[in-house]
Amino acid sequence: MSVTRRRTLLSAAMLLGTVVASGGSAASPPLIPEGSEPAVIASGFKWSEGPVWIADGGYLLFSDVPNNRIHRWSGGTEAKIFLEPSGGTATTGFREPGSNGLKPGPAGSIIIADQGNRGVALLDLKTHAKRALAQQYGGKKLNSPNDVAVGPDGAIWFTDPPYGLEGINDSPLKEQPANGVYRIGMDGTVTLIDGELTFPNGLAFSPDGRTLYVSSSDPEKAVIMKYAVGPDGSVSGKTLFADFTSDAKAGKPGLPDGMTVDEHGNLWATAPGGVRILSPDGKEIGRIDHDKPISNAAFGGPDGRTLFMTASDQILALKINVRGAPARMPVLPSGSNEP
C-alpha cells in the first residue's frame, strides 16, 4: 500500500484502538510501525467475521454472519454486498444463518465455513456456485462449521461449534455429541481430530505445517491449544499454548476466536481485549487493544502488509511490517458433492 493511499485511508476513517507493543529488535524492524493505529474502513454490520484478502482481485471479503451476507471491500469506507444469502435459507432454528470463516481456495474460489448450511463448501467467486465439501460426520449432520484452515498435505480442517443454532448446545437440531475439530481427507472422509474442546473456534497452521493452533471461545476456559501435526495430517500431541481465562472473567471484550500466522511463524490471535501476537514458543510479543470484540484477522493489502480485523459491527485495517505466511492451497476431496 502506497504512502499516499495509506494517508487517504487514515484521513477517511476513524482511528480506534491502541497498539500496546509491537515486537522487533535492533536487528529487525518492529512488527507494527511506530504510530500505526487501527482504522475503521467499514461499519454497520451485525457481527463481522472471516476476513480474506483476494490477491488476484485486490479486494477484501468478509462475512456478516447473522445477516447472512458476504461483503466486499476494495477501498474507501464502504463495503458492498457480494453474496446474499451467504449461508442457509432456513427461517427457523438458526441464530446465525450466514457464512463464517473464509479462506483462499484454488484460483477463483474460496473455502467457506458454511455455517447456515451446516457444512464446509467451495465458493466460485464469479458464479457464486457452491460445492459442498463436508456436511456430516458419523452419519449425522454437523453442528455449524465456524472456521477453516489448510493442513500440511493440502487437506481442509475445520471447527464445528453449535453457534449457528438457536439454543447453541441445547438446540434440538444439534446431532453431534461433540463440538469437534475435523479434517476432510482426500477421499472426502471426515475425521474427528479433537472432540474434547467445549467451543472450538478459530484454527491456523504454522508456516511449516507442523503445528496446529485451535482456540476455544469458552469464557470459563478461554484458551488456545497447540497440536503437533505429521506430514500426513496425523496429530500426535496436544498442549496448552495460551490461556486468557482471567482476561475473559475480568470482562474484557471478546474471547479467543479467529487467528492468523505471519511469515515468521508468529500467531496473531484474537482474545479478550483485542489481538495478541504470540511467538512460536508462546511468548507475547505484541498486543492490539480495542474496545469492541475482535472476532478474526487476516493479512492482505496490495503489499501484503495490512492486518484486516473484523470487530463486531466494524472492519479495521492496521499497517504492519510483516506479511502473512504463504497461503497453502487445498487439495479438494474427490468425494465431495453438491449441496
Q: What does this protein structure show overall?
A:
By secondary structure, this protein is mainly beta. It has one domain (3-319): 6 Propeller (Neuraminidase), CATH 2.120.10. Helix content is 4%, strand content 43%. The strands form 7 sheets. The chain has a 5-stranded antiparallel sheet, with no helix packed on it. Strands 2-27-26-25 form a 4-stranded antiparallel sheet, covered by helices on one side. A hairpin with a 2-residue loop joins β26 and β27 (314-319). It is globular, with a radius of gyration of 18 Å. It starts with a helix and ends in a 20-residue tail after the last strand. Mean pLDDT is 91; it is low at 1-16.
Secondary-structure blueprint:
Elements: H1 3-12, E1 18-22, E2 39-43, E3 48-54, E4 59-64, E5 69-73, E6 80-83, E7 102-104, E8 109-114, E9 119-124, E10 130-134, E11 136-137, E12 140-141, E13 147-150, E14 156-160, E15 180-184, E16 190-194, E17 200-205, E18 211-218, E19 221-229, E20 235-243, H2 245-249, E21 259-261, E22 267-271, E23 274-278, E24 284-289, E25 294-300, E26 306-311, E27 314-319
Antiparallel strand pairs: 1-24, 2-27, 3-4, 4-5, 5-6, 7-8, 8-9, 9-10, 11-12, 13-14, 14-15, 15-16, 17-18, 18-19, 19-20, 21-22, 22-23, 23-24, 25-26, 26-27
